Amino acid sequence: MTNSPDDLKILIIDDNENNLYTLECILKQASDIKVLQSSSGQKGIEILKKEIVHLVIVDIQMPVMNGFEFANALKDDENLKDIPIIFLTAYFKSDEFATRGYKLGAFDYLTKPIDEHRLLNKISLYSQLHKQAAELKRVNIESVSYTHLRAHETRH
């Protein structure tokens, strides 16, 4: 698969290598997706500062920096605060934790074991939204360029 500029770039963060592998295998079933991995929230933030990422899937239960702390760190960074997050957890299944996740700006909140079809449906929906936003941006840039060109031609 070749990567195009419109490919959806997803960062997956989990301290368990088996979970990262499983997630990546599931996500690679979807087309037009590039997957990046991180084994911790801190490393995830470092990746986000270097790479353009469109969506983060983060495990909540991690040592040092849990998923909620990771989300707070993103929200405190002007350049990263708008990146959508899907929280993933095996432990926190109560409504209280889901509510906390949504308050931190979660795009969604999923539990382990991962429901492969549900995750792929969410990714497909987000991928469609991403492509529509990229197309709108492209059309808007072309429109602005055309308007600027026409205004320039009218003056001369």
Name its key features.
156 residues; alpha/beta; five-stranded parallel sheet; 5 helices; 51% helix; globular
Topology summary:
Blueprint: E1 8-13, H1 17-27, E2 33-38, H2 41-50, E3 55-59, H3 67-75, E4 85-89, H4 95-103, E5 106-111, H5 116-155
Parallel strand pairs: 1-2, 1-3, 3-4, 4-5
Helix pairs in contact: 2-3
**Which sequence of SSEs, written as H and E, runs from N to C?**
EHEHEHEHEH
Estimate the strand proportion.
Answer: 15-25%
Low-confidence stretches: none
Biggest sheet: strands side by side, in what order?
2-1-3-4-5
Q: Indicate the structural class.
A: alpha/beta
What is the residue-mean pLDDT, rounded to a whole number? 83
In whole angstroms, the N-to-C terminal distance is: 47 Å
Q: Number of DSSP helices?
A: 5
Query: How much helical structure, as a percent, in the residues?
Result: 40-55%
Shape descriptor: globular
The main pleated sheet reads as: 5 strands, parallel
Rounded radius of gyration (Å): 18 Å
Tally of strands: 5
